[in-house]
Each structure stands twice: as C-alpha cells, then as structure tokens.
Amino acid sequence: MHTAREFNFDGLVGPSHNYAGLSFGNVASFSNVKSASNPRQAALQGLAKMRALAQRGFAQALLPPQARPNFRMLRSLGFTGSDADVLARAYRESPVILACAYSASPMWTANAATVSPSADTFDGRTHFTAANLNNKLHRSDEHAQSTRTLRALFSNEQFFAVHDALPPTPAFGDEGAANHTRLTASHGAKGVELFVYGRVEFDPSAPAPKKYPARQTLEASQAIARLHGLDAARTVFASQNPAVIDQGVFHNDVIAVGNGNVLFYHDQAFHDEKAVLNQLRVAMEGVGAQLTAIRVDTGLVSVADAVASYLFNSQLLSKPDGTMALVIPQECQENQAVARYLEQLVASGGPVDELIHFDLRQSMRNGGGPACLRLRVALTEAESAAMHQKVIMTEALYATLVEWVGKYYRDHLEPKDLADPQLAIECQAALEELTRILALPGLYDLT
Ligand code: SUG
Predict the structure, then answer these.
(1) Is 93 a catalytic residue?
(2) Which residues does a 6 A CB cutoff place in the pocket of ligand 1?
(3) Average pLDDT of the chain, as a whole number
(4) Helix (H, G, I), strand (E, B), or coil: what is residue 303?
C-alpha cells in the first residue's frame, strides 16, 4: 500500500459570476435569480478558503475558470456576426441563453469529473471522467474545457487517465463527484467507491423524483465504474431518496459526505438506508476498514434545514492525528437547529472534533457550498510530483491571484451588464493573464 494525500482542487471563481436562476431544482439558484452579484468578492471568498486550508497543511490546489462568454455555444445557437453582434443579439432575443453562455458555474468543481485514485483502478492509474452535466444548458459544455484542463494538469499517462465525458443524452446524465464518495481506511489504501444516482433510465419502475429533475442516472454511474476499472466487490450503487430531490437536494453532496471510514449523512438521504449501509459495511470489511456512520436524524435537522444551511455540503478533512475537521459554510452557524447539532457533534468524542467555517455567501447564493467548490484527488507522492505544480496553492500564488482579481474583476454584475461587450473583453484579458500566472499556455481553445 502506498501513502497518499487528498488534494482538494477548488474552482477559482471566474470574472462573470452572476445570478441567473438557471438551475431548476436548486432552490438557492432559483430564489436569487437576477439579483446583483459581486464577482470580485466571490473569487476572494474562494481564495480565502483555499489559502486557509493550505496554511493548515491540507493539500490544496485549484482548477482555473473557463472561458466566458461561451461564444462557441452562442454561435452554435444561431447568434452570428462579430463578437459584439453576437452578444447584442443574444441579449435582445434570449437573455437567458446569454446568461448560460456567461455562467461561472465551472467554479463548482465537484461537478467537473469523477475521480478514482490509483489504489482502486484496474491499471493502477488515477482515472478521471469529465462530467457531461447535460441536465442544464449552462453546464452542458463545461466538459470540453474540464477534459482539456485535466489533461493539461495530469498529462503524464504513466500515472493518469482522463476520459471524455459520457454521451450527452438523458440516459447518461452525469454530475461527477457530487454524487460520488470514497470510503477507505486511508487515502492510499484500496477504497470502496459509492455512486449515488437519482434515476434509472432503463427501468421506469425505479424510484424517481416527481417535481425536480434527477441529474444523475444509474447507467452513468455504472459506465464510469467500468471506465475506471473498479472492482465490483468495492463498488456500491445507491439510489438517492427521490423525495429529497424534490425538496432541493439536487446533488447527493447536499445531503451526505464521506471521508476516510466516515459517512456523514442525513437519515433521509437514501432510498433504502439499511441496504446501503449494509453494502458499505461488507465492502469495507473486504478492504480491512470499518465503517463509521454518523447519521443525522430528521428530528434534529430537517431536510429543509440541511438544504438551507448546506450542513452536508461540508468538507470532511483528515488531520494528521487521525481526527477530522468539518469545513462548513457560515450559514450553518446561523441556522439554530444546525448550530445546536454541530455543537453536540464536536463534543461527542467521535471522529469530527473541529469546525472550520467560511463566508462563501457569493457561491452559496447559487447553491454552491464548500464541497461543491472542490474536486478531491487522492495522490501518492510520485503522482503529486507528476502533476502540474503551478496550480498548488501557496502564499505566493494566493498573493498573485488576489492582485489579479483586483485588477480584472468587477464588484457588481447585473443581468443587463452581460450585454456590455466590454465585459467579454475584460473576461478574456483576465484569463489570458491567468494562463501566464499558472504557466498553462494553450489552456483555452479560443478558436
Ligand atoms: O449545478 N448552480 C450549480 C450549483 C452546483 C453545486 N454543486 C454541488 N452540489 N456539487 C448547479 O445547480 C446556478 C447558476 C445560476 O443560476 O446562475 C448553478 O449552476
């Protein structure tokens, strides 16, 4: 067994962060539609989280934002002419499509890909599959850049395999690591990979939500397990409880999170809780690990409180002494039931003995908490040495990026601003400089 560290790759918030109400089924996105955003503050809040966790000794890196506006999408939808013409016409004829082309949603990197560390895969390489995110127009093209970015960062094929996204059809709806958790005795050991899906395309009698869309299918999860060459004895597929999807749990990471041998989850998270827990226990015993389940009872925290506070969209981080810290958004402390629960949790003598909270309000208002903002990649020492180094968070990179944000980002963005051709020019200039900062020339396909 190798020792490995878990890197968190946080999404660097892009300069066009805005509230467009694009995600039906995501309560926060819908309720903040058309309010003014502050991209500068959003980026600084994200950077502050990355810096604080890096300073604490956690392995921290970033994924760069994607090029916006997405002119390829706009042109493919019939908006033609010069860049300025394309923007003006899209704003006039379909402001919602323009907002899709401008969305900074790649900041939620939990949705960038599903990752299986080398200890779990058939060929001993780390496997990535970019998520097709085909449930929402504004996210459906992210996979092209996500694949390109991951291939740029993890280019060494001796260690890494980056797969293209699954076919962009409803049967293979895939939202990446937001519906995937790995349980293990330690990051470098063989693990059990838990895939949670909301719908089964080829079995209409399977549980499915009635009001909001289920974004992840069983078929997609199974395809990823095949692509990554996972061992069936260490892979669990679990149906999400459709009733919670209908209450705003659009990804499983809004109601459950796992790390090490701990699964922290709400009692309503799964369609068949008992069966899921049993399968996990058996699979984990197979790799010499023992599941610790932290089950949060509805009587203590309702689903509505979980969705409002993002209690489960927290990061569970392993500390060197074997205990864990829970990284939570500030909203958890403002919700009475959740704050009370958390007090008990850290005092209970269990694995979680520390809370680290951040103000991530700009992201939270679009339904993205601490866990949405990061993609986990467990890497051995040799693997982490083989990846691109300039995306690793350091004090120097933090200072450079704070200055860069100050130079290019607006502090106020409303729907009408998306029609301003100057915004597109600013976004392009910002990313051009970023490719130099991160030493990633050719990161963006600007043809
Ligand atoms: O896909 N919000 C994102 C939030 C993603 C959260 N990620 C995880 N749970 N892992 C989404 O719904 C809102 C964009 C807008 O409305 O402007 C948005 O895309």
Answers:
(1) no
(2) 19-23, 26, 29, 103, 105, 108, 110-111, 139, 178, 250-251, 253-254, 366-368, 372
(3) 97
(4) helix
